[in-house]
Structure formats: C-alpha cells, structure tokens
Design a protein that fits this description.
Layout lengths: L2 E5 L2 E4 L4 E8 L8 E6 L6 E6 L6 E3 L7 E6 L4 E6 L8 E8 L7 E4 L3 E6 L1
Parallel strand pairs: 2-11
Antiparallel strand pairs: 1-3, 3-8, 4-5, 4-9, 5-6, 7-8, 9-10, 9-11
Length: 120
Amino acid sequence: QVQLVESGGGLVQAGGSLRVSCAASGGTLRNYGMGWFRQAPGKAREFVAHITWSGDFTLYADSVKGRFTISRDNAKNTVYLQMNSLKPEDTAVYYCAAGSGTTMRGYVRWGQGTQVTVSS
C-alpha cells in the first residue's frame, strides 16, 4: 500500500519561505487527491490545502490563501506545499495525506509529518 513521507521542514524567519514535499512509495498517487494538514502544539489538526488527482483544482484554508501553493508531480509521485510570507502562527507539524475534502475523515493515508517552525 502507499506510504507517504514528508520532508523539507525546518526553521525559518517570519516573512520567509519554505517548501515541504510529500513523496509516495509502494504505490502511485496518481489516483488520489492529496491534502496538507497541520497541527500546532495543543491544537487540533487542521486542513491547509487540497489538490485533485489531476492537479486542475485546488482548495485552501482561509488562513493560508494567497501565501501557500499546493502542487503535484504525478510522474515523480510527489506533492508539494510552497509556503511564502510565513508567520509565527504557521508553526506546526505539517502532514500530507491521500484522500479528499477538508476534514481528516476524508483521507485514508497519512505521512508522519515534518516540523515547520517560524521565528518572529
């Protein structure tokens, strides 16, 4: 079955940019919509962005709209989240997941997460 592995997290100053990636192994992402979620300490995991399997439709949380961009390369079995104009409140563990919608129940496969820390 498909396994998802995130990478690219790290420490960045407010206003900076970071790109996190999600690579699949053991199968293809080609038939899956993909999403990014995040979870800050002491808070529930929340939806960040979604992209359809073809890449022709994207959806964003209001808190990241205009700053974050989700994309995918099906040939590389990889999904990306480009994060610009980062704010301290973007600090969280970022998870990629295979599925659809804006809630966790719509996703069937999850990665282990990658930490993103934005300093003020």
